[in-house]
Design goal:
With 92 residues, the protein is α+β, with helices and mostly antiparallel strands. A hairpin with a 2-residue loop joins strand 4 and strand 5 (48-56). The protein has one domain (8-91). Helices cover 29% and strands 39% of the residues. InterPro entries: START-like_dom_sf.
Length: 92
């Protein structure tokens, strides 16, 4: 799945609540249908933000559960890296 491209359709963009929601356009490169996601940011303390990232599908091949978990972990690690670089840039 590494290197695959996906087309996402923005469903919700709420600047006030800091929420985005999206659907993955089909066909997908793996056996799933109705795949969607939601990300929400919430300030929890000065300089600290909680990211809640939810995804689900109408149907999903359970054999891919570990693969998808790994993919999501890579996505989160990439996001953390970008945020850390931005924080370093802001503090310099």
């Amino acid at each position: 799945m590494s290197g695959d491209r996906y087309i996402e359709k923005l469903v919700i963009l709420d600047h006030e609540k800091h929420i985005i929601s999206y659907l993955f356009e089909e066909p997908l490169q793996f056996p799933a249908t109705g795949l969607y996601g939601k990300q929400e940011l919430e300030s929890i303390a000065p300089g600290k933000t909680l990211l809640t990232w939810i995804s689900d599908a109408e149907s999903f091949d359970e054999d891919l559960k570990d693969t998808m978990y790994g993919l999501i972990q890579l996505c989160i690690a990439g996001l953390v890296e970008l945020l850390e670089k931005r924080q370093i840039g802001v503090s310099n």
